[in-house]
UniProtKB/TrEMBL annotation, chains A, B:
This is Thiolase family protein. It holds the Pfam family Thiolase_N. It comes from Streptomyces armeniacus. Residues 248-365 form the Thiolase C-terminal domain. One of its GO terms (molecular function) is acyltransferase activity, transferring groups other than amino-acyl groups. It comes from the Bacteria. Gene3D superfamilies: 3.40.47.10.
């Protein structure tokens, strides 16, 4: 990863290059070992004027040449979509070693342009007519849950406190300061009940991952396997009783991995607004329907809990540079599975889940991906 | 396909929807049969303000829901890159039936924005410093070949005449009028030696293809198999003697298909400027090095020649709505292989090659793809 934050002195390419090179170094390979590459970016067309060949402009500079490079874009799920394509490419036997790199530079001289670009994560014909945007959509979902008694205002405040506490432990995070419940509650109201300290911010950053056929690379410590990769786009609001898009992806991923929610040791989920973590805990099957409040209140999702969520700080504290987020989730989970997560290390995790979603089209995400990662070696094999 | 041309009354989504639905009808399937989809578009972020979820906004409107949809962007090679991802997806066993749809609407109220967006097919940090653009790059290559005696001015004029003659036979083409050599030669000079009638134009349009695992769909006439799919991105100008990116892709594709250039019965190549067809004839191995002029002069590339090229009219006459072009090449070849190409039908072709390239980075294409298609049934099986 390149750290997430505000980097006026660095170009979009600078950020991406750092993440890509670090991923290669981490894998112990050189650029000549990479056989295909996917780039994830969601906004450079509108923000930097660089459409069409975004990934190539980055990868050229690190010396990648004459391999297939494909630019992938799927709103806030761009990073995980690039990862999914990398996994497909290895699975199809088309390449043994594939690089996926996600990057975004949202701080530009005119932030109104950034807001316009963010709006295009929905169908413009729809949102411009409705006059609606993302924060409002999250807020309405939360208000309904509060009205139904499924969540309390304390829950959605405290989940933001937890997010910032984790972010404070993550050197790659945009927001690295603990906050109190009072500070969260009293922060500027963005869309009732959301306050500023619950929301992800405009952010620069990059993240990358190397996906390889098993056995193609020399082992450099614990091996992390992609046990499942499931994606979907959903356009219409679900009738009552029908599962959400992320639930559908998770169910597909559990089936693919031969696992269930109770096997998951930690998860990174798409908390573009911190309280969304609570929605996803239920949608991913981590707690029974209607019991997310008690699940959270029991401390389950803390770093020392039974199912730590967003140990990185999540989107709301680690930051959410759109094209990079899905791969930053993967970086966090790989570090955790290897025991390299420092002060935020979960105790000996073996199975991790990443849920990344993006865009909005009439009540559902425009894209969602769930990946399940598995540490293959037992913990005492590498670090007694 | 949706016809290529200028359609002020139609939105980008209108164009794409027509192509997608026609591909489904052609395959004899409904939206519920599609298990994954790829969208190819290169400019909508800058031209329509619709970044991030371009494909979803289209596919939602035809009723596609809850399948993986991924937006792919690779400059002028976006369409073939989407096709390549569709092929990978089937090959990986992740889906049996995949839709790829490419679309572009380049006519907008301010055509200066279209030119800016086209510029972003190269690394802006490079082209803005050099003050160079695509037409000039093609012109310099051609001037060198003329200076070396490999091509004559007559060759590059007459290949444009052939392109327009083919376009005149294609109801989907943007330019459907025959032109004379004198008209080509005397047309407005764009970048010496290129004149207006040699160049592809600003264009709206869409094209789509359905890729399926063999046996997954009921046969509705001759089956066309994807015999090879090879792509690459190349960033650095080649040293003398080293093959071009399209040559490299073609060699890979020939190997994958177990075929050679002499097996190819017809080809669609990326003639963004009509004379580029001559460059590609040599790069794809259709004629010996240095012999492209005599190959062309012998009429080999005409519809009734030994290796018809760009029977559709190619980019320069069929039109080049950037994201759609790679899939329009596939549509033409599939029609030809099935015997459905009407007045421009080649006599009983069995093997066809599509070469699509895009972008420019310091002397090479930012992306290129070569696909080889094969008609499986003998010709007399279906149409005696």
């Amino acid at each position: 990863m390149h750290p997430f934050g505000r980097f006026p002195e660095l170009s979009l390419k600078d950020l991406a290059r750092v993440a890509a090179v670090r991923a290669l170094l981490d894998a112990g390979i050189g650029v000549k070992d990479v056989q295909a590459a996917y780039s994830a970016n969601a906004m450079a067309g509108m923000l930097q004027g660089q459409e069409m060949v975004r990934g190539q402009t980055v990868l050229r500079e690190i010396g990648i040449d004459r391999i297939p490079v494909v630019n992938v874009e799927n709103a806030c799920a761009s990073g995980s979509s690039a990862l999914a394509q990398a996994v497909l490419t290895v699975r199809a036997g088309a390449a043994d070693v594939v690089l996926a790199v996600g990057f975004e530079k949202m701080y530009v001289s005119d932030l109104a342009v950034t807001l316009d670009a963010l709006e295009s994560a929905a169908d413009l014909d729809v949102v411009r007519g409705l006059g609606i945007q993302f924060t409002a959509i999250y807020a309405m979902r939360l208000r309904r849950l509060i009205a139904e008694g499924a969540l309390t205002m304390d829950d959605i405040v405290d989940v933001a406190v937890k997010s910032h506490a984790n972010g404070a432990l993550n050197p790659y995070a945009q927001h690295r300061k603990e906050v109190t419940a009072g500070q969260v509650r009293d922060a500027r109201r963005i869309a009732d009940p959301l306050t500023l300290l619950m929301c992800s911010s405009i952010c620069d950053g990059a993240a990358a991952a190397v996906v390889a056929r098993r056995g193609a690379l020399e082992s450099r410590g614990p091996t992390v396997r992609v046990a499942a990769s499931r994606g979907a786009s959903g356009f219409t609001a679900r009738p009552e009783g029908e599962s959400s898009l992320s639930t559908m992806c998770a169910e597909g991923a559990y089936e693919q991995a031969g696992l269930g929610p109770s096997d998951i040791d930690l998860a990174e989920v798409h908390d573009a607004m911190a309280p969304a973590e609570l929605l996803y805990a239920e949608q991913l099957g981590f707690c029974a329907p209607g019991e997310v409040s008690s699940f959270f209140r029991a401390g389950s999702t803390r770093i020392d809990g039974s199912l730590p969520m967003n140990t990185s700080g999540g989107l709301s504290s680690r930051g959410h540079p759109v094209g990079a987020t899905g791969l930053a989730q993967i970086a966090e989970l790989v570090w955790q599975l290897r025991g390299e997560a420092g002060a935020r290390q979960v105790e000996r995790p073996r199975i991790a889940l990443a849920q990344n979603s993006g865009g909005w089209l009439e009540g559902e995400s425009a894209a969602a991906n769930v990946h399940i990662l598995e540490r293959l070696e037992p913990w005492d094999w590498n670090r007694p």
